[in-house]
Amino acid sequence: MNAPHDLGVKLLLVEDEKRFAEALKAGLESEGFSVDIAHNGDDGLWLGTGRAYDVIILDIMLPGLNGFRLCKALRDAGVWAPVLMLTAKDGEYDEAEALDTGADDFISKPFSYVVLLARLRALLRRGEPQRPAVLRCGDISFDPAAKRCWRGQCEVHMTARELAITEYLVRRAGEVVSKSEILDHIWDFAFDGTSNVVEVHMSRVRQKLDRAFGRHSIETVRGSGYRLVADDA
Ligand code: CA
């Protein structure tokens, strides 16, 4: 692929070192990319979910949401543009973690600009990564990319938080999931709530996913937590 001069490739760069970000933006724009910069993770999430980008470059060490969390948050929000992560050092740990959070490739700082361009072009050729398959438990289906849930053919409309709880239960179907695990997983941004908030939300999920259909998929395991089982009635 040649320089994407007239392809109108939209690129989001999330990088807090402002001079470095501006220099990179200038270089990429001379190659025909159209570049938006966010200087912290929260702005990165706001831009990344609000506009359609063809490719996203994330630094890992960022104020606010770090690059790992930002990548995961973008994926959780259904953003599937290819993500290239800038790792601070060439350590396997960083790279493995970058891939775990849904990044598609990584490049260690300091990097050669030519190599960066080659990586970006490779990602663009590859296009959006494959979305995860729809998850199932009995006749409950959950689409993690679209954040939508169905009981049989009937879509179950829930709040974002209820959907997150449902996704977590479906991913761990058949296992006992404790309230503290749910709390850690769903309220992971410095929330200091108690397990009571889990009970409140779980009762709403149960109402919408089970009672509305006369089912009992969400079992309460006394003293331990909850377990999602197939109840196909
Ligand atoms: Ca940084």
Explain the layout of strands and helices.
Layout: E1 10-14, H1 18-30, E2 34-38, H2 41-50, E3 55-59, H3 67-76, E4 83-87, H4 92-100, E5 105-108, H5 113-126, E6 135-137, E7 140-143, E8 148-151, E9 154-156, H6 160-171, E10 176-178, H7 179-186, H8 195-209, E11 218-221, E12 225-228
Parallel strand pairs: 1-2, 1-3, 3-4, 4-5
Antiparallel strand pairs: 6-7, 7-8, 8-9, 10-12, 11-12
The structure holds calcium ion.
Calcium ion binds next to loops.
Strand tally, please? 12
Outline type: elongated
**Strand share of the residues?**
15-25%
Number of helices: 8
| Rg from alpha-carbon coordinates | 20 Å
Any ligands, ions or cofactors bound here, and which? calcium ion
Mean pLDDT figure: 86
Regions with pLDDT < 50 over 5+ consecutive residues? Answer: 1-6
Helix content: 25-40%
Q: What strand line-up does the widest sheet have?
A: 2-1-3-4-5
N/C terminus separation: 54 Å
- Helix-strand category: alpha/beta
The helix-strand sequence is: EHEHEHEHEHEEEEHEHHEE
Instruction: State the major sheet.
Output: 5 strands, parallel
Describe, in plain words, how this protein is organized in 3D:
Strands 2-1-3-4-5 form a five-stranded parallel sheet, with helices on both faces. The protein has a four-stranded antiparallel sheet with strand order 6-7-8-9, covered by helices on one side. It is an alpha/beta fold. It contains eight helices and twelve strands. Strand 3, helix 3 (67-76) and strand 4 (83-87) form a beta-alpha-beta unit. The chain has helices at 18-30, 41-50, 67-76, 92-100, 113-126, 160-171, 179-186, 195-209; strands at 10-14, 34-38, 55-59, 83-87, 105-108, 135-137, 140-143, 148-151, 154-156, 176-178, 218-221, 225-228. 39% of the residues lie in helices and 21% in strands. The longest helix has 15 residues, at 195-209. Bound molecules: calcium ion.
